Amino acid sequence: MKNFKFQNPTKLIFGRGTIANLATEIPIDKKIMLTFGGGSVRTNGVYDQVIEALKKHHFVEFWGIEPNPKVETLRKAVALGKEHKIDFIVAVGGGSVLDGTKLIASAIPCDDDAWDLVLNPNLLKSAIPFASVMTLPATGSEMNSGAVISNLKTKEKFSFYSHFPQFSILDPETTYSLPVYQIANGIADTFVHVIEQYLTLTNESILMDRWAEGILLTLKEIAPKIEQNHTNYDLMSNYMLSATMALNGFIAMGVSGDWTTHMIGHELTALHGVTHGESLAIVLPGTMQVLREQKKGKILQYGERIWGITEGNDEVRIDKTIAQTETFFRSLGLKTRLHELNIGEETVNEIEKRLKQRGSIFGEKQNVTPNIVRKILENRL
Ligand code: NZQ
Ligand code: ZN
Predict the structure, then answer these.
(1) What is the pLDDT of residue 125?
(2) Which ligand is nearest to the CA of 177?
(3) Total domains present in the chain
(4) In CATH, what number is assigned to the domain containing residue 260?
(5) How far does the centroid of ligand 1 lie from the alpha carbon of residue 185, in Å?
(6) In the list 90, 229, 338, 377, which could disulfide-bond 343, CB 3.0-4.6 Å?
(7) Percent of the chain whose pLDDT exceeds 70
């Protein structure tokens, strides 16, 4: 097990009717900005619950943070926040609203442009406190300090690390209105978050392997049931908590991470707008295929413990495990090949070129060069 430091300051408030907690969790003298996406919260009752809870507070509203939040939009929220001397933000929506809010919270107290903060973490100073009402289980953003911000002009999408939410409210009933496609993306995203902290080296932590496998097995079990009924409270609770536990630092204790699949997925989103979860469903089987020798021990363990694959020699079992992983994503209704989204060789060339220019290198062994990325993408054409 590797050395590690673990600290997660976010208070989780979980369950039915918990949005009402906003009334008491935020001091009454705070000048609040509420941040929202495109309007889903208006139709599913979440907005009304938030407004009811905050009826004694002072707040302004900022609408329009889009999926894969764009810095161009976030700059407008920063200006509004400065104008109103905002000192607390509540993000109400999916991971994109919260990710955008993390950047807004960092940019309000400083003079630098928001995109400069993404490109240069050294510019980050304090951030104003923020919290979330999370309506889409997927990113884990509700209990981590990460965010992923896009730039429309340059067609770039980069990670950014700042502060944790002070608290996050997770009411599984808010997920009942999710479209099937967003649920599929959320399950795939959660699955791949676990995989990228698990499908690396063997024998680093027996305990973390079991936690990771526990989340993967939960997703495998609930995915087909959620497809049948996504207004079942217990199913959606398990899905929601799985998403949080997959990326709040917990299963990362003492083990190596990879993140190759995410980094390639971000490029597909930046260039073609591919939805985050689907980008991962496309890339992961390629990462497993191209890195099958390096990840051999873990792929065999994952195949056996998650999918019950025990027959055949190692190579046969690895083939079956990769195929089964792709079948799982397809069973959610996601695409797993680039040509299905009309993405071809040109994009592979462009991604390889970009990664070379940036000097990017990924993977648990820091050996995934732009040339290896090319091979992964060629496997997915
Ligand atoms: O904008 P509205 O109208 O609210 O609709 C949203 C949006 O269209 C809708 N939605 C959300 N909750 C809903 C709902 N519709 C009906 N009922 C509800 N309860 O869903 C659509 C997608 O929302 P979005 O927030 O974009 O999805 P998600 O939560 O998957 O976030 C994706 C973003 O998070 C980043 C991704 O790269 C992407 O930019 N990630 C953030 C991470 C982090 N902070 O740690 C890690 C992840 O790996 C990921 O990269
Ligand atoms: Zn993700």
Answers:
(1) 85
(2) 1
(3) 2
(4) 1.20.1090.10
(5) 9
(6) 338
(7) 100
